[in-house]
Amino acid sequence: MMRYRYLIAGALLFSLLHARSVAQVRLPRLVSDSMVLQRNTPVQLWGWASPQEKIRITFRGKQIRTTAGSDGKWSATIPAMSHGGPFTMDIKGKNHIILRDILVGDVWLCAGQSNMVHQMTLHSERYAFDITNANFPEIRHFKIPQTTNLKAPSDDLSAAYWKSATPTDVADFSAVAYFFARNLYQRYHVPVGLINASVGGTPIEAWTSKEGLKDFPDIQTSIRNNETITPPPAPAVPEPADAGLDNHPAWYDPAYTPQHWHPFTLPGYWNDQGVRELNGIVWFRREIDIPATMTDTSAMLRLGRIVDADVVYVNGQKVGNTSYQYPQRRYTLPAGILKPGKNLIVVRITNTAGKGGFIPDKPYYLAAGNDTLDLKGDWLYKVGGVYQAPPPQTTFRETNCPAALHNGMLAPIIPYTIKGALWYQGESNMGNPQEYSRLLPALINDWRNKWHNPALPVLFVQLPGFLEVQYLPSESSWATLRESQRKSGSLPHTAMAIAIDLGEWNDVHPDRKKEVGDRLALLARKMVYGEEQLVASGPLAEKANISDNKVVITFTDTGSGLITSDGLTPGQFAIAGKDGKFVWAQTKLEGNNVIIWSPEVVAPVRVRYAWADNPDNPNLYNREGLPASPFELNIDL
């Protein structure tokens, strides 16, 4: 028996030694075919192999040698090189790896929440020409898969690939990042790599490391707690019984004869049209006459945005569904679904909280060939089912936990050399907008520490207008967070793209992504690429002084001079005395200053501009067409 034990132990030892002897060089997902490497600076590569394995990298006629450590990890530094490509990289250890189609140019990290996520395809109507004519194979995009890690930084990513900006692949690019890269590429003709690390609905803390959040005791406690817990499962949300599906025939079937349906004007919310605080399932239907010219080709059905989830049927056939409220509903109907004469459109909406229905000021139409039929107006509705109690809400989301996305999505790529970073986020921190003035600098400093680059350029987007317009001066979480962003722009090697004029009151994902990307590119051209004379920002408030009982506000970044976009006096300026009550101010432009006053405020102490969730016509610009940032200033007395 003892002899057999020795034999088994010897076999296990031999297997372990053999496994180590044949271990192969392995690369991180990011270091792969079609990657873009950063030009004009040493570039770090890394990976894994067997302990003490010798590795040789050949690239652009140079050889770099390195040896794996006792833990099997290795790294190598490629000397600075000029832009160009495509090139091939040869990596040889006990195995042989060849990477092809490599470019050398500028690499930008693009991070944030949904407005950075939003792909070109989600804005395909506005940017149809840009998608069809995308022929920029030297613009590359690497989308990091959504991954969290509550316990520690991860070593690598799951499956992901570099893709080029062609009509086939550009639809999956971040729209903001693509237009940023295209702007720079068309100017400098240098390859651009975009590393897209973004997840919708996530707070800034999730993208900052544990070390980067060291000055936030409550957050540190949360991180420590999360390191030891087992995340609870998401609560099940069973739908209520639905009379529309239980009926025979079902309510979407053309054979069904509607009874006791009620009129509904589309678009709109059912809470505003006779249904009180209903969480459940509501069906909508409309019969529409279709000319024969629309029936021999595919058609486009546009149903704006719907709160929350929908399933859509045309003539009894399911043509599309969306599981949450934010995407615009754009469904393609294959040829043959429409028929000459009467056609039936049925929409089944499930809503779990808040006002359900069709969001106003969005496109609602059916188009085929050269014909377009407006779908706004008279519809019918009927309630199919009601939640007996409020559906359980998810209270724990790993993607929202501090450091979780940093660990899962950023830590695996941090050795990769980058030119700079783009950041578009803030909506999910609206619950505590004042703290953002500390969290954003913490994120920036954290990334600079992790990349060992104290001057890493970070360009971020100030949140655009959103929600209903308010016509009296009032407090605003959105304005407070924008002010936190504005103050963060004073950090060295940072710049803020002002987007107050690019919002939509009824959509947290406004459509005009090209302008955002172009404004980020302007900032990069000036701060990073050396076009120092370029006017890259809209006016930024500098200080406010009292002169002749009026407040004089001075600005930087006035360019060729201050103007108003409509030729009227500057609007959206408010003024307050020691009581803190703001009133609208009278205003006038005087050179590159704005003069404001109010007979209601004898001794003003604070001023605000465009201080609202969604300010009504903030019209102050510079002559280069860039809007002024919203702000709040104490008056220098």
From TrEMBL:
GO BP annotations, alphabetical order: carbohydrate metabolic process
Entry-linked Gene3D superfamilies: Immunoglobulins (2.60.40.10), SGNH hydrolase (3.40.50.1110)
Domain Beta-galactosidase galactose-binding, chain residue ranges per copy: 282-343
Coiled coil: none
SUPFAM superfamilies: Galactose-binding domain-like, SGNH hydrolase
Pfam families (alphabetical): BetaGal_gal-bd, SASA
Domain Sialate O-acetylesterase: 105-211, 417-521
GO molecular function per UniProt: hydrolase activity, hydrolyzing O-glycosyl compounds; sialate O-acetylesterase activity
Keyword Hydrolase among record annotations: yes
PANTHER family for the chain: SIALATE O-ACETYLESTERASE (PTHR22901)
Protein known as: Sialate O-acetylesterase
